[in-house]
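Co-fold these.
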Amino acid sequence: MWHCQGVSRPEPPAGAVRQGSLREWNLTLVLDRIAAADRPPSRAELAAETSLTRATVSAVVEDLVTGRLVTEAEPTPRTGAGRPARGLVLAPDGPAGLGLEVNVDYLAVCVVDLTGRIRHHTVHRADLRPVSPAEALGRLAGLAARARADAAGQGLTLAGAALAVPGLVDDAGRVRLAPNLGWRDVAVAALLAGHPPLTAHVEGVPPLVVDNEANLAALGELHSGPPGPASFLHISGEVGIGAGIVLDGALFRGARGWSGEIGHMSVRPDGPACRCGGRGCLETYTGQEAILAAAGLAGADLPADTATTRLAELAAAGEPAALRALQEAGTALGVAVAGVVNLLDLDTVVLGGGYAPLVPWLRPPVLAEISRRVLTAAWSPVTVRPAVLGAEAAAVGAAGSVVRRILARPAGWLARHG
Amino acid sequence: MWHCQGVSRPEPPAGAVRQGSLREWNLTLVLDRIAAADRPPSRAELAAETSLTRATVSAVVEDLVTGRLVTEAEPTPRTGAGRPARGLVLAPDGPAGLGLEVNVDYLAVCVVDLTGRIRHHTVHRADLRPVSPAEALGRLAGLAARARADAAGQGLTLAGAALAVPGLVDDAGRVRLAPNLGWRDVAVAALLAGHPPLTAHVEGVPPLVVDNEANLAALGELHSGPPGPASFLHISGEVGIGAGIVLDGALFRGARGWSGEIGHMSVRPDGPACRCGGRGCLETYTGQEAILAAAGLAGADLPADTATTRLAELAAAGEPAALRALQEAGTALGVAVAGVVNLLDLDTVVLGGGYAPLVPWLRPPVLAEISRRVLTAAWSPVTVRPAVLGAEAAAVGAAGSVVRRILARPAGWLARHG
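Predicted complex below.
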């Protein structure tokens, strides 16, 4: 079976309709129209758009307002006689999503509200390779508890959490393998469950979802961009390299949810040994630490993000070793990306995570390899662009995935908080 | 937009139902149940399964029988009192699909009936690289005319045709690029249209669809295997190498329909020059002619299929050059396949076309590379198997695609032939 995440909506009730499911459908329909609108719609506009009666729309909106999912926008100026119609918007002070990330050299926590705004964001830099999984997740739980307190102070209720990890996750929330962290068969969901609960119990919103960081970063990027079904390859360049494949607005997860391991595509079959056990994987050429080492910045004892900023400064100043390292990394990345484009016929490649500040130097060699190697390149250009979100994409994507679950099934939240 | 071929069914009519569309929906529904049944269903069984009335089912079946889409199977033995129920099956003497293929070193034509049986199959071996597109398509039209006469003699009506080409095709039926044939911007649909029409005009069934041969071969394989939504990578190993990506029973076509160009994924970025203009593409290592050359069979002046058979014989006899050539080809193929599996998390790889007879020697090195390079290989095995169909897969897939269009919208056929 193919798992495409994204928001699955309840189907419109068919055949014999129970009142419960009809109410749920109407709630979802109206909330979806409010969330998707260009400008705050009035109740009358919602009725016209949904074919529901004015009375039904009014009752549904009242439920949504009482449950802090929707609020009235500032009145729009009168355009004629009568009262101005009050438009409806998603509530910025209702439920929110908690996004968590464990990566090789940082922990991140963020809170995103229903409108998609980031309300809290913490990044804690530390090399987590020498640290046990329990210790790493304990530190993360500490950061999360502070985020929760901050969110509560802003009137927000955390309705669920999602955790991004740089590895392969199974359905039970266990990390099967995270080669760059050195984790193998780590029950992260169980380890986090040992800490005090951070989120309210909401039907239809799991308290904790564990997912691959490249997948969540791609979802973060998808929902930070313009609305509409986008298709792109999002590459997260951290110590490891992961990719999220977004097709028509949905994440493509593969047969068992383990797609996107672009970091282990081969660039040179007999190249340097990789932490995965293979040789010549893309990661050995274009992982963050490989680029820094090639530029002579490996021994500088700086955190990777600071070293990356330094590398960008050196490249901007025309320092030859920095330029050469980025040229070589971009060429290897371009070889792999050209292979993906030949295989999947994607027209947009997004460079995210630690790559974002390096895009000015990575993009030209990536485009050169695409132009050399992609069969359709001559008449069908591929766009290579930096991600809208930077290194925070995975945590933001994680928090956003919680929010979208609430929007997709508002009845679960309303049952407790309405 | 993402084009997933496969059979698109009309949606069940919603809201106000017009009689025309309701009749069409019932025809499609009943025909689909007959096509999908394990054993010939009776009218009563169809009524129970579809929730249609007995009278409606009888009327629909009468239309389908009159239109030669359905026929009554041999009576089943009585199981109790009363008349034996007569089961219904797809008609073997109604409409059929014409499948055409132009490849680098052969032309192929086949006819597939509604039941999926191959009723005519011709392969004409000739190196088409020195031949103009018009001449090649003229020869193909000659073979097709003979296939049509043979089909008519068997009581079949060709309802439409599909043409497989080893290159990139646009929506207008133009080959943008077929590197191994040396074709660029060839209007194949227009060139074939200069020959007398071969198929009946049926609403909803285009007289000629042009598609990539690897896509059609993958569809041929999909519909030759067990029913149900399969997911696999199908690799067609001819002079060029193409792939069809099947996800949950549908072909994945990519943003512009040009997915599957696995032959131009890089194995060694600075390897041998490829006809595409790149270097070190998979095709330069594992294309049919590359394997034969490595085995010392290139100058033998044999057609590729005969030379491939000879290579298999030499390998079976333990001839060192043959074994070494296949080992090296399989290793290069394995590097590319491992990259695809890392990227897409597919669990089945099918080796088809000219690879089918070489699978005993290609499979071990392919599996070895998967095991070395795929992150999930240790706990999530990948099956590598030969295709059910051999080199005829693309033409059979092409003919089958026509048949599936008729099954998906029987009303078009019935309007003229009912």
